[in-house]
Amino acid sequence: MSDNKIPYKIYLEENEMPTQWYNVRADMKKKPEPLLNPATGKPMGHADLAPVFCDELIEQELDDVTPYIDIPEEIIRFYKMYRPSPLVRAYFLEEKLQTPAKIYYKFEGNNTSGSHKLNSAIAQAYYAKKQGLKGVTTETGAGQWGTALSMACTYFGLDCKVYMVKVSYEQKPFRREVMRTYGASVVPSPSETTEVGRKILAEHPGTTGSLGCAISEAVEVATKTEGYRYVLGSVLNQVLLHQSIIGLETKIALDKYGIRPDIIIGCAGGGSNLGGLISPFMGEKLRGEADYRIIAVEPASCPSFTRGKFAYDFCDTGMICPLAKMYTLGSGFIPSANHAGGLRFHGMSPVLSQLYHDGYMEAVSVEQTSVFEAAEMFARAEGTLPAPESSHAIRAAIDEALKCKEIGEEKTIVFGLTGTGYFDLTAYAKYNDGEMTDYIPTDAELEESFAKLPKVE
Amino acid sequence: MSDNKIPYKIYLEENEMPTQWYNVRADMKKKPEPLLNPATGKPMGHADLAPVFCDELIEQELDDVTPYIDIPEEIIRFYKMYRPSPLVRAYFLEEKLQTPAKIYYKFEGNNTSGSHKLNSAIAQAYYAKKQGLKGVTTETGAGQWGTALSMACTYFGLDCKVYMVKVSYEQKPFRREVMRTYGASVVPSPSETTEVGRKILAEHPGTTGSLGCAISEAVEVATKTEGYRYVLGSVLNQVLLHQSIIGLETKIALDKYGIRPDIIIGCAGGGSNLGGLISPFMGEKLRGEADYRIIAVEPASCPSFTRGKFAYDFCDTGMICPLAKMYTLGSGFIPSANHAGGLRFHGMSPVLSQLYHDGYMEAVSVEQTSVFEAAEMFARAEGTLPAPESSHAIRAAIDEALKCKEIGEEKTIVFGLTGTGYFDLTAYAKYNDGEMTDYIPTDAELEESFAKLPKVE
Fold first, then answer.
1. Whole-prediction pTM
2. Residues of B numbered 51-110 whose beta carbons fall under 8 angstroms of chain A's beta carbons: which are they?
């Protein structure tokens, strides 16, 4: 199809929306390693996980053979509230860059959670409701996941307790207020409300918290409260499954216009967006039906793929969660205080870790000043003020488009624009004022963190 | 067409988008009264307005006979960045209300300015650029208009100076930061940078500013700086013309599915959204082709339609702007400090004022606690966190839907959801904490303000 026939925004019709999620594990020859019980070192089965997670979500977590799983009707209905999300042709950005590359982005920010997180939040809330639970607990850092979950819980009439990393709780009162508006209760973490929180506070009285620590608290409350389970917005296999809706919609939209991407780019923190975006494309690659360059982009200040170890590690600071085999910087790793751009989890989705380990994808790390430079350029060209997390993908997409310009190649680039930056203006202000700095952890810092990795086998 | 065939969101295709704006004045038998020169009391022509406004915008301001005006190609291209905006069927809200009414809303918040303001900002920036100007000045209250204008100016490479009401400048640093990210310079008003600002500061040293005062400053700078003109985001005829894109898209979407609205509802501050939304429907009504109930919703704390006088008044506090015949509370009127919900301009679009005066539309006023109650209900049902301004329309739409329930009538209601509330969380926090109060100006207060209306004729 001729290029000028491609609209600025490709919206699917409701009847073109996917009705099944795609489970990329089904097509992986080498499956991701199982979660291990930290006490016994043995793989965890349904019974081990049942005190923490909802039953049907455990089935999804453990299922590495079923390629397609039906999306329940009620979830499809909720998806229609804010999906399909647009696949946008970045005509304005292309023009600004004067690149022969064709750039597309899948924009997941047109909902009040401000990101793709709602795709899995509504699924997890649905299964919790179906199981007859009273409520769920979770952690949130910047607040996108917490907001998404509060929106999903209010829809199903579930109670929602969010442990919010203390520094974000204090610096982002507005995110907290959105969650409250959707009826969630929000607790700064570490808190006195849990054993693990009290322990961490005793050991580190002035701590401003971390994601790993908030996870520990949320898990403790879920396992100790009747009728509650814990839910998580990234890293887990089930989350990647739900997020495959992003990639499936992208693929349908591209196919509709006969567009074949050469490069697919996503930012990677725990891997929820990247895993979702690339799923169907990775499936084709695994089945030998097509080839794509797939690039994960992470912050240079929290470089799990590019500088982490592929090893079993805890997902939380309190070391009460299962062990996962993943690229990790060590569960005690906390990015430098100057880091503004999200994507601060120490580990990475086991699915993506395995795929990266097996050579199916690349990874690059970028420094935050260059990320905000890309964010500003994108905002001015394409209108939308991007989330700092998403801007990592923008940075890499711009870099690839500039390479195309240099060598005169007309590649098609697709990247994931996970969300908007409306709650990240403190970071933008720092950038606008020229006060943003970069920090890359030293090898010695990482070695110190790696030394504390649990010994498995 | 059967009801269950109507999708949750109706998106037009690019080729279905309007290519002309509609000028409702062309169909008005009684035209809005002309702007008057405050010094002479005489109607202002092109030459009088040229020092303040861009030439082609003056043509649009004064043209009350041409029904359709072509949208320039470059503006259509920019519109495609964020338009068409969706017409959403509020299935979830209908269900929550258990109403037989069918509710639709035209959602203008899916762009970084967070509102419909971008529709006119890009048009005004385009004509400024075409005229070879260096830049434009404007005022902003809550910041939506300023943000929209900074986005439009960066697109055309124009300088953008924004006078921001001081209280908003201080309480909404994030809006300010968005404007800066798009390259605008933002000055808190009243400021020492203008004569009128210095005069107001001398008379009221502790003042936190007002829209009317920021207008005075922006106009002064525009008229005194080579290569600059002043632009305004509401009230003016030209703004209503540009905003007609909202109503035109709405009508195309409704017609596509054979839907005929009974009631059309919009919030009204200066009238930009309401005027744009209702334009083509009002046109049909004026031409006797169809009948609709059209309802303007305003805050009880700033009730220009429902308690104002239909009289000539200044648009600004400094009394340097032209006089407009409109519903007004007096140019010195400032809503009570507890008012959080926007829509705080003392006057109203002359076009809408004339139409209201001639009985073509109704107006209601609502108190802010009931507005935020509606906002919360809407957010929880429909997902999107609405702007306080938009929530005035939500309140009225819910009230009409509940009346339908009471009397068992299946009316079709369309309202304008002008924007999102992501920068209004201070107000939401107040509501969540149960600390929001209402204030209705007393008759005595209004009489005092009316007494200062200029004597015309």
1. 0.96
2. 80-82, 92, 110
